[in-house]
Amino acid sequence: MVPDSDILVNELPAKEFFSETWASLPWTPWIPFTADKYELRQIPKEPGLFRIRPAGKDFLMYIGETKKILHQRLADLRMVLKGRDLMPWADPHAEAPALWAWQDAEGFAYECSASPLDATTSGRQGMESYLLYRYRQEQGESTPCNFGRIHPRYRRSTSRKESLRGGKLEAGQKDNPAGGPGLPPLKPAGTPGEPGWMGLAWSIPQTLGTGTIPAAPAGPGLYILTDAGSQEIVYIGQSGNCARRLEDHARKSRSEKELRFSFHGLENPVLPHQLRERENDLTGNYFEQYRKAPEFQFRNK
């Protein structure tokens, strides 16, 4: 046994999501946000994926992707977070308000690691979902700054155009629900589209049309859209009102495919970030099995 005095204080556990080969991707070493420009040169000048952690902690804060150059994306983010008295806007970096809130509340010093990925937008965003899925499977919970989450004692800034600055809540104000607990990850089970996929009770598939939507719950739920011909899932979704969202799909669908839908209702109350967690568990598992995202999954992002 190693004496306590010989254990390195800053030594981190051997987490798979800290590895330089996590998910078979070539990750850079961990680089502090305070690093000089020479050390930052290790960040690739290519599109790809990135992960952020608090120095000395055993979890990730955020997992993201970018079509821009990773080096510039992360350099810009660290400047947004550096020496700010005010919470930054939610654009151009959607994660900046949440990272700032945790930095302000806990004094976190961030480190980043990046991996280039030569892929389509759908492929890159599908890999981001897969990494979030893998993280939840290993850690048992989500990162604090994905899925719209934020520190419970802070409210989020809006975009510059909306111009509502976020910040710390007053002592008498209730916690921000977006800082509430997440749902535990779904356990992998079955094949996408099967009745018991991911341990959920999916409804019998029906043709997507306004006459059949009332079968869906007028409350929170998950749903899948499937190509009636190939039986392949083309979209995985979630909504606080599943019936209304499916009605929107039926009304706006311009697909040449005949689509069918299946749903799984969730008990109330369910927070928005919890719905997004469930949607991502499904999308990540789909990506794990087929190495691609559903055809329509990221079309509007």
Note down, in words, how this protein is organized.
This protein has 301 residues and is α+β, with helices and mostly antiparallel strands. The chain folds into two domains: 10-179, no CATH class; 197-290, GIY-YIG endonuclease. The chain is built from six helices and ten strands. It has helices spanning 37-40, 70-81, 96-106, 121-139, 242-252, 272-290; strands spanning 31-32, 48-54, 62-66, 110-116, 154-155, 167-168, 206-207, 221-227, 233-239, 259-265. The strands form three sheets. It has a four-stranded antiparallel sheet with strand order 1-4-2-3. A hairpin with a 5-residue loop joins strand 8 (221-227) and strand 9. Helix 4 (121-139) packs across helix 6. The longest helix is centred in the middle third of the chain and has 19 residues, at 121-139. The radius of gyration is 21 Å and the shape is globular.
